Every structure is written in C-alpha cells, then in structure tokens.
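Table 4 source record.
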Amino acid sequence: MPAVPHPTIALLQTSSLTSVVQQELERAILVGEYAPGTKLIEAALALKLGVSRGPVREAFRMLEEGGLLRVEKNRGVFVRDIPTAEAIEIFDLRATLDELVGRQLAVHITAVQLKEIKALVADMERQVKAQDAYTYHLLNLKFHDRLVELAGNRKLTEIYRKLIKELSLFRRLNLADSWLMPITANEHRPIVAAIASGDPDAAGRAMFEHAMDSKNRTIANELERATSTPLPVTTPRRERL
C-alpha cells in the first residue's frame, strides 16, 4: 500500500498546489484567456490542471479576495467585470499613490536604480519602433511596478499591485491598441527626468498627471466603444487637489 503523507506534509502539499493553481488562474485571467464575465467551473479546471478540486476551490477564494473573481451563491464563480464607475475610482486612487511614489523616489532613488528605470524606458521605446504591443505592455507594467517597489513601502506596493490587476480587467481592449504606444511612451522620459531632478513636487506631479492621462484615455476609449460615437484621444486633464 502507498504511504499516507503525514498531515503536515499533506497540508504543505495542498498549500503549494493552491499557490500554483492561483498563479496559473491569475495569469490566464490577466492575459485574457478568461474574459470578464466568464464562468469558471471548478471540476473542469481541476481536470485541466491535473489537481483535486480542493486547491481550485481555495484558489477561487484567494482570487475573489484579490478582486479578480466574484462568487455568486447558487450560480457559481465568475471573472469580474469592472464597471466604469469603479474603474474611475481605481484610477484616481492609483494616481494618488503614484504621486506619493514620485515624491519618495525624487528624494531617495540611487544612481544605480535611476539607470535601471532609464533602461526600461529605452527598452519600451525600442518596442514602439518594432510595433510590438505585447512586449511593450509587459515592459510598461514592469516599469511602473518597479517605480512603486523602489519607493520602499511594502504595504503601498501590495495595494498598488491589487489595483493594477483589477484595472487590467477593465483595460483589456485598450491595451491591444498599438497606436497608444507612442503616446504613453512619450510620457515616461519626463517622469524619469523629474525623479532625477530631485524635486519631489515635480516628480509627484509628473507621475500623477501620467496616471490621470491614462485614466482619461481609457475612459474615452471605453465610452467610444460603448456608444460608437467618435471621441477625442484625450480629455482635459483633471486639476490636482
């Protein structure tokens, strides 16, 4: 007879499986394999991933807490569809966090860290020339995530990453628009320059305005798709409070 795992070992194995399942489901959701509104079937996913239903069920719970799934009693588990009103709230919160990050980096960033983010900007610009929207998008996410990480506030980083994952559900169509690449790419060098200047006000303002411009573009595109009425690429920038 096969040996029965010690309860502690079994728990660790289950925990590890849950983490793997969660990461795989999160990846699939964020890259668009499961669109907003899609119903996820526990048994089917367990079979597909080669695990029991327990880790899938626990992964569902963790992804619900992370804002990517919604659980409806007697109906099932669905990929969240972020409404425009909620997306606006997330964008506004992100802009406020970005402003704080910019102010912190202007004071504390090192020469080595500055060189690193300049390299990311240069890499993004190469992807614009190559018209590689997918790689550009990944680098763009890495650039902003790294700026937040370099600010050195772990709680802020945790909150920021949750917000970005939720926004990805709303921005999916927008991210496929390759014509936006040069627009957003041109806003990155001024951010780096403001941080490098050592001026907290300038750095905070640059990051805040970039986040708000991203919000305005995304909302305008979403409204255009919803109404089929042509709208400007950008809308007037909101005044900082």
